[in-house]
Amino acid sequence: MSPMFSDFSFVNHGIDRRGFIKSVGATGALLFTANWTWAQEKPAKKYGGEGMPGGTKSDAKLFVAINHDGTIDITVTRSEMGQGIRSSLALVVAEEMEADWERCRVVQAVGDEAKYGNQNTDGSRSMRHWYEPMRQCGATVRAIIEAAAAAGWGVPIREVRASKHSVIHALSRRKADFAELVGVIASFEAPDPISIRYKSPRTYRYIGKEHTHSADAASMVSGTAIYGGDIRSAGMVYAVVARPPVLGSTVESFDDSEALKVKGVLKVMPIEGADVPSGFKPIGGIAVVAENTWAAIKGREALKVEWTSSPHDSYESEAYRQSLEEASTKPGKLVRSVGDVEAAFSKAKKTHAATYYLPHIAHAPMEPPVSTALLRNNFLEIWAPTQAPQAARTEAAERAGLPLEKTRINVTLLGGGFGRKSKADFINEAVEIAKAFPGRAARVQWTREDDIRHDYFHTVSGEHLEASLDRRGKVSGWLHRSVAPTIASLFGPDPKHQQAFETNMGHSNIPFAIPNVRIENPEIAAHARIGWFRSVSNIPHGFAVQSFIAELAEEAGRDPLRFYLDLLGDDREINPDELKDGWNHGEDPKKYPVDTGRLRNVLNVATKEAGWGKRLPKGKGMGFAVHYSFVSYVAAVLEVEVEKDGNLIVHKATMAIDCGPRINPDRIRSQMEGSCVMGIGLATTGEVSFENGSAKQSNFHDYQVPRISLAPRSISVHLVDPEKKVELGGVGEPGVPPIAPALCNAIYAATGKRIRRLPIGDQLA
Amino acid sequence: MTTIHLNGQDREVDAPDDMPLLWAIRDVLGFTGTKFGCGMGLCGACTMHMDGAPIRSCVTPISAAAGKKITTIEALGKEKVGKAVQEAWVKVGVPQCGYCQCGQVMSATALLTRNPSPNEEEIETSMAGNICRCGTYNRIKTAIHTASESLKGGAK
Lengths: 765, 156
Ligand code: FES
Ligand code: FES
Prior knowledge:
The complex is a heterodimer.
Chain A: E1 18-19, H1 60-63, E2 64-67, E3 72-76, H2 85-97, E4 104-108, H3 113-116, H4 126-153, E5 160-163, E6 166-169, E7 174-177, H5 178-185, H6 217-220, E8 237-242, E9 251-255, H7 257-261, E10 265-271, E11 285-290, H8 293-302, E12 304-307, H9 317-328, E13 333-338, H10 341-347, E14 350-358, E15 370-376, E16 379-384, H11 389-400, E17 407-411, H12 425-436, E18 442-445, H13 448-453, E19 461-469, E20 475-483, H14 500-503, E21 516-521, H15 538-556, H16 560-568, E22 573-574, E23 594-595, H17 596-610, E24 620-629, E25 632-642, E26 648-658, H18 665-684, E27 690-691, E28 694-695, E29 714-719, H19 739-751
Chain B: E1 2-6, E2 9-13, H1 21-28, E3 47-50, E4 53-56, E5 69-71, H2 73-76, H3 80-92, H4 101-114, H5 120-127, H6 137-152
Helix pairs in contact in B: 3-4, 3-6
The complex binds FE2/S2 (inorganic) cluster (FES) (2 copies).
Residues 36-39, 41-46, 56, 58 of chain B line the site of one FE2/S2 (inorganic) cluster.
């Protein structure tokens, strides 16, 4: 039975059970050898975690509590959606604390940016922004525990050391479990952060080690893990919402007489929608509120709604595809220009052009959007699987007319997110229902049809590339026009152009050694809600660029690998600014240059491990792609077979990632495996198309995602050691972009058929 | 009112005949381990065992379960095979978001109960109805073999 909530606590831990760690004091009670080398000049512009709203926090008392039995509660502020972040961040704390993972418990923070710092779980940045703060917390607590033990034994601090949940004084052969020290640590202050000693990586037990320690795996396979729909309360009401099928349409009229006759239906009520651009706000519609989910679904089936017409009624995907491709063949807004592409083209021995198309795709997380809200005694409480609790909380408070401190948002596990659950629309629908049912918890459940039809869709794009080859078969000129509706159309008058954060995802910032480059972005209007989908614009840009390079190699009559390595040129670190990438995933360009040596390295590892160049029987082929995104470097080699009837089998996927220092290798592997399957899915069947303004697909029969038979027979993931000291990179997203082009390059090798339009669908038949 | 035999106990469910077992068990009885993914029998997130066979509870009306033995994920660990499957899943590190995994575990348990040493093809066939959007399929295969081995290895 799932927990019933009778009070306002999602995770119940009595305050009296724990020994509190005092606040970090400027005057540390403990003195360690000061190590000043860390000090740096303060950069004018804030980057990384500090550049995010709310920044980061490293106050140990916010994140660590020691219970009287010696068990440790570690608070994680990021949302768990499959990337393993709850485990990985907590492991960092446990490592530096010398805690035993088996005696640690992960506590999920409520959404509170002022208290915890930025909690937006997106952009593949949780670890690279929170590794240092979490390390600092762990080391701080260890210092306190060591100090407490030393004081208790009357020995100098330097003679004791924490190890495996105990403190040891070797000279006197004394040992105290953390549990024995709980009572005394409360009187010790945290040391000054600058005096903190960190563990030597040589002594790591968890960080960088292969293991499958997970805070959640056991509960996930036994049905006790709590997701968005698993919160229960006596008297709870359940709602589903009929939403406008077309962007910008609203309720003209509705007839609820039949709906109200359905047994269990309690109320039918309009939900006001925001005008376009609607941002993360609900798009409105009619809610059917009932005593259980089924009654709500039946009630909605019986509901009659007339929708107003909308300027987007004529959105039709085939016509839109044509306009995208047409726009991509004409000059557009200049994004980056180097040298003179026209001159290069006119002098060329050979030129080549190709246009690619990638459709909208839907996130379709396994758990459709769902959330629960309760408005009681002038206090609003929410339980939601959200990637962005702060934004959800702020908007919910506004809606309920309550100050922020009268609003609490509990973050449940997310049954997948992929960017969809950064948006609070589904949470605010629950708030609207809760307002109509004060004192009763209100759940809004999206059905799969709701989820696919009303997604914040991945963009749709036309990608046109032209290049020239000189006499030696080298690329002398490169023109890439990318046309795609922008995510910015969600927030303001549609700018019709990709924003820096979109074009800087593999369009403008290609690091190739090409003397003449021209990057353009012709305009196109959006007719659906466009949102971030795992790896975002890297998908279309990466697909087009990596497919086109393989086409060029073919044109030049050269092995694609040799051709690609030549294109990369000498190993060099490029300042992203030079690539007209002033965004750089929010990271300092000095710390995070684009490094062609790292691209070369992952490509070499992946192709070598895959056995690149080996002879394959007819009908089989190998293809590769390599892509830089989220400040990480990933290469993929796919080996496929296309059977006579066009059936596609992916025999083997070999991936290599350089994401800088590795914290939780097993979760890096699992993210690569998952990215591989998702990439194959979007390449083979991923498509949401529009007709009369609305999405045609609605469930897994017509929006197909990979099943077990489409997964590669084997996936091997190689974690590549960078050849030099580098910063932490992203993991959750960068595995996706190279997959679709590697797959299509492999299909070309197997069949001679070049796929320029996704999804592949029945093009192989 | 329908009576089902759920996880070893008779339960009276006050629900209309057409209410899918999924919602009856989640909303009316309050066991939330079984998940909703599609409502059309397409994804397997809602997999339960009815008289030992895996069913999609989102398309099984409660009336069809009257008097039947229903096992949900909450009670699976009490069975030898179910427990071995759950343990293998944790050991191999199968779950990512975990949302599909109760359904995967239910399907895998039914498979191994029927066929203690499935080959790749049998695994693919039996697991074809369970979608994992996180793409954990390769580990699912590994974990099924792991569970199979551990069950053969003398059932500790
Ligand atoms: S929810 Fe039943 S098969 Fe998808
Ligand atoms: S683990 Fe997320 S859907 Fe399977």
